Amino acid sequence: SKKSSKSKSKRGKKKKKEEEGGGDSQEGPEVEWSDAVFKKCKEMMRPVRKTLRLLENPEEGVDEKEQLRQQIDYLFTIGQQIEKNCEGKEEEWVKEWTENLWTFVSQFTPIGSSKLKKLYAKALSKRTTADELPKSSKKRKR
Fold first, then answer.
1. 68-120 pLDDT tens trace
2. 55 vs 75: CA distance, rounded Å
3. Contact, 41 vs 101, CB < 8 A?
4. Which segment, 11-20, 23-32, 69-78, is predicted with the most confidence on average?
5. Given this model, what pLDDT does residue 106 score?
6. Angle separating helix axes 35-44 and 91-106, nearest 10 degrees
7. How far, CA to CA in Å, does 88 sit from each of 44, 76, 84, 102?
8. Which residues of 126-142 are buried (b: 16+ CB within 10 A; e: fewer)?
9. Would you state the pLDDT for residue 58?
C-alpha cells in the first residue's frame, strides 16, 4: 500500500502544479492529464502516428537544415490532422482540444506545445503562400 500512496502523491503534485499554472506546456513530457484525455488524443491523432514517431526520432545522417525542413513537414502534417479533428466543432471545444492535442504532440519532442503551435502557424503561412502561386499557374495552363 506504500507504493500506491507514493504514486498518488506524485500524481497529486503534478495536478496541483498544472492548476497553479506551473504545468505549462513548455515542460513537454512533464504534463500529465487524465487517462481519458490522453486516450482520446491518441485516438484522434492515430492517422498521423507514423509522423509523430518521425518527429520523435529524426532521421540520422542528414544535415541540420534538412532535419529542420523534415520536422516542419511533420508539424504541418500533424497540424492538419489537429485542424481536421476540430472541423465543425464548437469554439470552446476547439480551443480546449487544440490545446490538448498540441500538448499530446509535445510528448514526442522536447519543444513545448505553444512553440509547436507557433512553428505550425509559420509553416502553414509559408506553405499557403507558396501553394497559391503554383495552383493558379496550373489553372492557367489548362
1. 889 899 999 999 999 999 999 999 999 999 999 999 999 999 889 999 999 99
2. 8
3. yes
4. 69-78
5. 94
6. 90
7. 15, 20, 9, 19
8. eeeeeeeeeeeeeeeee
9. 81
The CA distance from 36 to 21, in Å, is: 21
Task: Please provide the average confidence, as pLDDT, over all residues in the chain.
Answer: 76
Q: Is 61 left (phi over 0), alpha (psi -120 to 50) or beta?
A: left
CA 121 – CA 26 distance, rounded (Å): 17
How many helices and strands (H and E) does the chain possess?
Answer: 6, 0
Residues constituting the chain? 142
The Cα-based distances of 39 to 35, 91, 101, 137 in angstroms read 6, 22, 11, 44
Task: Determine contact, residues 101/82, Cβ cutoff 8 Å.
Answer: yes
**Nearest 10 degrees: CA dihedral of 37, 92, 22, 123?**
90
**DSSP assigned state of 1:** -
* pTM of the model as a whole: 0.66
In this predicted structure, the answer to whether residue 36 has a pLDDT above a threshold of 60 is yes
Report the candidate in 129, 110, 88, 108 with the shortest Cα–Cα distance to residue 48. 108
Q: What angle do CA 116, 119, 123 make, to 5 degrees?
A: 135
